[in-house]
Amino acid sequence: HAWHGHVDITGLLLMARAAVNIEIGVSTPTVADLKKHLALATDQWQANFCVVPLAHPRYWRDHRRPRAEQFTRSDLVLDSNAWCRLVVGKLSPWIRLDSADEALRKQSEAAFKQEVAWAAHLNVPAVMLPPVGSGAVNYAHCVNQALLSAPHIQFWVRVPITHPPQSTAEAAGGDEDGSSGTGAWASWNRLRCLCEHAPNLGVSLELGADLPDDEAELERWLGEPLRAVVTPAVAYLTNKRGYPTLSRRHQAALARLLQHKPRLLVSGRADAHSEGLGAHVQYLRYLVSQRLAPSQQERYEAPYYDFLQAPLQPLQDNLESQTYETFEKDPVKYERYERAVYLYLCQRHQPGGEPAVVMVVGAGRGPLVAATLRASAASGRRVRAFAVEKNPNAVVTLRGRCATEAGWDAVTVVPGDMREWEAPVLADLLVSELLGSWGDNELSPECLDGAQRYLKPGGASIPTDYTSYVAPLSSSRLWNEVKHFKDLAHFETQYVVKVHNAYPMCAPQPCFVFTHPSDARTVAEIGAIDNSRVAQLSFDVPLGGELHGFIGYFHSTLWDDGSEAVHISTEPSTESVGMFSWFPLFIPLRTPVLVPEGGRVEAAFWRNASRHRVWYEWALTEPQPSPIHNPNGRSYHIGL
Max Cα separation, the chain? Predict the structure, then answer.
């Protein structure tokens, strides 16, 4: 085990802060004196917050015969800052919202509403809800009312997962339900669907003493709104020095879940250890501190996690200097391009021969031009380079580099659209970086078709091909981000996003393929090229889940000389590690669809092109048909 004994708490705190700020709380069955309990938990145990019963757990209320005494403590026990910063409320355990006993059900409903109203009055940040039973429709009804009446409160549904399944007799639904991973997820999914995927409804995942055998069960929860991870004190082992520790499986599961920075929670009796729950809190802080520090790439990507961005309109918009600068910092992309140009020059041209005419189309501020010049020097082959760029601001930078940088005297800057330029000579090689997050979705096919008019017969292109890939995706977070706009158009738009809080339901499959150059050379031949595509794909989904849309990637071959191939890729199985110029594409569905265990997802994707624009359409056909999204590009298109 990673934990070897008692560690000084000050040192643990310093290590934790150096790693990542994860809040850790404690939950005990009862709290006699709230003020003393908070002082114990925050000062001695070093917890960040406490889960506190909103009413005495054994305080039975009959709505028909109100009791004279108060059902809970006064709000004056703490100031408002402490209530909203240090306390998470917890409902009474006796509440049975779906009980067959009508009297108990009505009493439970009244108590539920009373405690939620009290939580709203206290302005606590969250309320912990009990586990949900398999048939808990009235539970969902009451929770949905609370979500609407108190939108400023987060409601955490306690979801225990363990193996073998155990009875959850405390479920507020009143029905016992298996707490295996599959049964627990199905109950949660039923609840959140009945509550319309409310953004303030989340999961408090409880890791039991024995975790499910199937590791994919935990993976599925990575696509859910994970608010907290609960580790009961009874799930801990004891090391040689008498301190609590988790099994290696629990440590691995916790490390995986910590990627989404949920709050951690220890639940159990205050006397679970001679040092109270503080020993468990210290151990969790130790585990958090042992996580590897984020890499430079992770630090760069973190602000973009699950942040929706519309794809670029490359022919309509000119990039800003800051955007160019960000892309130029990619440590992988330009090294791969340089290697591809080097291999091309070595294969197709001789040292001391005529210079190879290389046209960099869409040159930006010149990183591909610089890569070409480096490849020329390394290969001993001369080049005559043309930098074609439509952005007049980037042209200023290109001309500045020609005037000041060594080797750039071999570069001719061409201001204008690559599709309209009349080249003075024909090119041996076209080099471009026109790819989008889904390969062809930033008009690379259309741009290169127009540019290949000035390519010699037998000339080459870097890249030589690119393929878009797509996979079914479960992500409540991303779907709710789209839902937040409250209109159809945003559900018919594709988004560039660094997908984080998500669960890809199976491996991606190839969708659209483009190769360059084609045989077309004349204006008439190029005009006849058809860049429309259709793909009908079928995915086998081993572990069921809620399908919220699709995730798109690409794989591109820059050059293949027969002995060495150079690729750039965002597709997971061939991903170019360290490359951050492209994030995946999120393709949403208007309505989430439940995919059963071992089910199949079938979908169709269309790439449509006209003289003035390109747009995508998509539809689900199995397990149930969806409307065709974005027909005729009514909500989103890319202008030519």
Answer: 101
User: Which letter does DSSP use for residue 335 in this model?
Assistant: H
CB atoms within 10 A of CB 243: 21
pLDDT of 176 above 70: no
| Tokens read off for 172 | 């507020």
CB 601 within 8 A of CB 575: no
Quote the DSSP letter at residue 225: -
The catalytic site residues sit at: 433, 442
- When pLDDT is cut at 50, 70 and 90, the band that residue 571 belongs to is very high
404 by DSSP, 3-state: which?
helix
Q: Give SS3 for 43.
A: helix
The Cα–Cα gap between 30 and 27 comes to: 9
- Provide CB contacts within 8 A for 591, sequence distance 6+: 626
Nearest alpha-carbon partner for 328 in 320, 316, 317: 320
Amino acid at 95: I
d(CA 90, CA 97): 15
Omega before 351 cis (within 30°)?
no
DSSP annotation of 597? T
> Do residues 589 and 547 make contact, with C-beta atoms less than 8 angstroms apart?
yes
Amino acid at 430: L
Q: For residue 308, which of 89, 485, 171 has the smallest C-alpha distance?
A: 485
By CB atoms closer than 10 A (0-12, 13-18, 19+), residue 505 is buried
- The average pLDDT across 41-55 equals 94
Could you tell me which residues come within 8 angstroms of residue 416 by beta carbon, excluding any fewer than 6 positions away?
A: 388, 390
Region at 613 (left for phi over 0; alpha for psi -120 to 50; beta for the rest): beta
Alpha carbon 227 to its chain centroid, in Å, reads 15
Using one digit for the tens of pLDDT, what is the confidence trace for 495-550? 999 999 999 999 999 999 999 998 877 778 888 889 999 999 999 999 989 999 99
Residue with tokens 């049964």: 183
CA distances from 83 to 50, 77, 125 (A): 10, 9, 8
Closest by CA position to 416, among listed 393, 435, 398, 391? 391
